């Protein structure tokens, strides 16, 4: 969804490169430098994932406006509250953003003809264009496998292996049939991108943007990328970490919310994730019930008596679960936990 010429940006609408440069004048700013083709690619060999350079704030505007453009630059995803105190006081939140749920507001600045490769984020995003034009190519999250996501548990997990600037249809044949949307945003426009929508973004001019990120309710995020990401946060040792990673407010609290999540994962074809959630609930409630809050999973299992056989079965099933691997037990485990009504303190 795009709101054209929103008029909702207040003083943020005046953040030209020159204005930003002036406000940053006395300090160094970290800028990422694109590959020669203009793409800000993640480099698996670099510690930060991107090639960075520091630049004097006072020279920022001139560096971004330098003609001819010899190097493409990007001030990338700079959290305004935490890292840009010079501008934080001028910020306003457009009324379409649920301000109380905001996670981060970021500042972006990019050279003409530079691009951010195809990827998705796990947050809802209101993208506000302040200066210059940006072109978005957007793909709905259901097309996950056809967009060739990077390997799980790596830094490129949420990036496509496809280079949209030069797509290789021999290597990535499913790409030929994907459906996409295209949008060019101009100063004053607001683009809403729901969480997990894939996007490829190219800057057509010297561009300044601000994006507003907030966590989706999990019921709005059920898609293959979310279910895959769930595995990353499914740590049997600390199932409570899930409450930090996702917004369960609509699902209830404590184990009720996690059981609802397990049911949703099962309904969306991920019995392995459902089994892992059940295992996490069981570990947390056993620790509480047995008074062993510090026990790791093997010591906890070793401390179980025969009366805990169902709990042991649940933890064993959870330890066996892997993304995409079928688990015939998940529905039984959920039913068992519903009956035994385990407690979970955090929620
Ligand atoms: O503007 C860009 O280059 C990338 C923006 C983006 O990926 C985002 O807002 O999530």
TrEMBL record:
SMART domains: JmjC. It comes from the Bacteria. Gene3D superfamilies: Jelly Rolls. Pfam families: Cupin_8. Residues 56-229 form the JmjC domain. This is JmjC domain-containing protein. It comes from Actinomadura napierensis. The lineage of its organism: Bacteria, Bacillati, Actinomycetota, Actinomycetes, Streptosporangiales.
